[in-house]
Amino acid sequence: MDRVRQGRPGVRRRFGAALAVGAAAALAVTGLAAPAQSADVEAAAAQADVNVAKNAGFESDLSNWTCTANSGAAVTSPVHGGTKALKATPAGQDTAECSQIVKVKPNSTYKLSSWVQGSYAYLGARGTGTTDVSTWTPGTSAWQQLSTSFTTGANTTSVTVYTHGWYGQSAYYVDDVSVLGPDGGGGTDPVEIPAVPTGLAAGTTTSTSVDLSWTPVSTATGYTVYRDGTKVASSSGAATTITGLTPETTYSFQVSASNAAGESAKSTAVSARTGKGGGGDGGTVPKHALTGYWQNFNNGATVQKLRDVSSQYDIIAVSFADATTTPGQITFNLDPAVGYPSTADFKADIAAKHAAGKSVILSVGGEKGTISVNSDASATAFANSAYALMQEYGFDGVDIDLENGLNPTYMTKALRQLAAKAGSKLVLTMAPQTIDMQSTSGGYFQTALNVKDILTVVNMQYYNSGSMLGCDGKVYSQGSVDFLTSLACIQLEGGLDPSQVGIGVPASTRAAGSGYVAPSVVNNALDCLTRGTGCGSFKPSKTYPSLRGAMTWSTNWDATAGSTWSNSVGPKVHSLP
């Protein structure tokens, strides 16, 4: 969001779809020559293929592995199987290369695979004596399997198998590496695949979550939970809670057990149905709401006190919270530039807005926000500090506007802890950038779906983004009704309830670097999505009458432009079906 304290738009870097494979860490594979075999012997050997990689699941930390520049470490989350995985972080000219030495045979075929997550991740083999191979992914927030194969040459007794990240990118994760083929003499880890878990049962359910438990398997180091055949969670213990589900929906769950030897078959399935639900309303937010961000700083827009904010706004997001030296913890510092003689006067304005039926929340992030929630401790620090500010100032909730990325696992934990403290009246909003909501695999989208039962509205920023893909796979340029409707469609069809979707736009040409649209265009988009009228070339396959509304950055820029935006879009929002 172009909520810059100095009025400058943010800069977004893009990367090409292809990058050259760089120097990688070696997983050197050496072996012994094998005599010629009959067809029967060869068939028997093929049936006896083993994973010749040692400590393939990193359950013994980095035993048997070497990573360049101390770039790698065994971590307990996220994991694909078992209880640990490799986390490797590129830095400078180091791509976080890792290696291991195992044994193979010449004239043999090996299937190379691993599960990866995070930023750019590469897997390949060099020095095979035949054709070297490689594969890669530009990054994923969920586990993805990379797979390829290679054949050793007649005189090849060592092969380099590698995994690494890419320059300037964030950490990547690797788990369950497999070099599957004939045993070259080194054998495999002396561990058997665990038994199939039994006793899977569904416990407490909510509108978006199900508690699961099962009987522990003595040789298992971790468990994998599947929903309708798709992996959705990993657990180190014999119980977990599956979140991000759709209300009033029946799901089928299974669980498998894992250790260093591999993963068991899936358990007998158990069904569970979620309860009736919907998004959080904070108790006071109307069915159709207008959101505006109030600037706690002076960047050239009209300086306002909260009492000056137009009555058209139903949710006022105070921008922004500040970080402390404690990871995840937030605080709020009233800027003297906005003219309040005291904090008490500011609190009185919040109370007056409450009396007028409005919600006042604290926005966390912005273009310059540095708050990071990436651990259990920081999640708890976020929840505790946010709730303390709600109690101190009277804020009704929080807005998540972290423009430098977020961790869906720990942000989900933080928001659920906050909701447990604040109760059903919590107002929870989000303001992701357009790129953050292009796919449900993105961290922001995942977080929104994870907290769907307590989420009030996602007001995506339809600006400062350039062209983007709509839900029909076509490219649309910002600043048009098609851009607004086709991108909203992604969220509407991606799992959010229409009541949790809002259109976020700049209040004036000065409020953002690009993407401004006239209020009439916003109103056309609202009509298109809710009534099927006013559309451009893109027309949704159905209407969404319960669409929450619209948002703008900011109430101050709106006031600078004579409140044209709120006086036009506000009545439209409040008259939606």
TrEMBL record:
In this protein, which residues make up the domain named GH18? 288-577
UniProt-recorded Gene Ontology molecular function terms:
chitin binding; endochitinase activity
Q: What range does the record give for the signal peptide?
A: 1-38
| Domain annotation Fibronectin type-III: ranges | 196-277
Q: Which UniProt keywords apply?
A: Carbohydrate metabolism, Glycosidase, Hydrolase, Polysaccharide degradation, Signal
Q: Which PROSITE patterns match?
A: FN3, GH18_1, GH18_2, TAT
A single GO BP term for this record reads: polysaccharide catabolic process
The EC number(s) attached to this protein equal: 3.2.1.14
Q: Does the keyword S-adenosyl-L-methionine apply?
A: no
CDD domains referenced in this protein's UniProt entry, alphabetically: FN3, GH18_chitinase_D-like
Where does the chain cross the membrane? none
* SUPFAM superfamilies attached to this UniProt entry: (Trans)glycosidases (SSF51445), Fibronectin type III (SSF49265), Galactose-binding domain-like (SSF49785)
Q: Does the keyword Glycosyltransferase apply?
A: no
**Which PANTHER family does the entry mention?**
ENDOCHITINASE
- Give the UniProt family note: Belongs to the glycosyl hydrolase 18 family. Chitinase class II subfamily.
Tell me what this protein is called.
chitinase
